Amino acid sequence: MKEALFCRKADQGKVKCGLCRFHCLIPDGHRGICGVRENMGGILYSLVYGKAIAEQVDPIEKKPLFHFLPGSLSFSVATVGCNFRCRHCQNYTISQAAVQGRPIMGSDLPPEEIVAKAVALGCRSISYTYTEPTVFFEYAYDTAVLAHRAGLKNVFVSNGYITPEALAFIR
Questions:
Q1: What rounded mean pLDDT belongs to the chain?
Q2: What is the DSSP annotation of the chain?
Q3: What's the mean pLDDT in 158-165?
Q4: Cβ of 68: how many Cβ atoms within 10 Å?
Q5: pLDDT above 90 for 87
Q6: For 88-99, what is the mean pLDDT?
Q7: What does the pLDDT read at residue 138?
Q8: Dihedral sign for Cα atoms in the order 103, 143, 17, 158
């Protein structure tokens, strides 16, 4: 769990999330539409920081990119949660797993370990994928900074429903 970025206090103990374009107004003790950002006593927290629900080495060609590091491997990582509810989602069992009041699923996987695994496995990039990386922004950002320092590229496989401020920050 980590204090969330892109939020501000609102009236009556509520917190306004500014990460995605839904701009959830979250009462104390509740989560936003993504299911992974919770208001605890007027402070918004990311409940998925360091809790990977999936990790996998994929060929970069599996990602929606064109001629980006062709023939290379990408270390893919995800947490539970999404800000969409798509009926055709192939990963709905993990993207929709964050339910109000239930514990967050996932295994401890700190950013440093993601980068170390990617390097050890010969990956040239880290992909934030399978679920919506916008909702695990703080985790992805901290990992991306370390990955960049290690000479790895970062790939956000996203629905794009992010605020301009958050996009500029991670860019």
A1: 96
A2: -EEPSSEEE-GGG-EEE-SBTT--EE-TT-B-TTSSEEEETTEEEETTTTEESEEEEEEGGGSS-SSSSTT-EEEEEE-S--S---TT-TTHHHHT---TTSPPP-EE--HHHHHHHHHHTT-SEEEE-SS-GGGGHHHHHHHHHHHHHTT-EEEE-----B-HHHHHHH-
A3: 96
A4: 15
A5: no
A6: 90
A7: 98
A8: negative
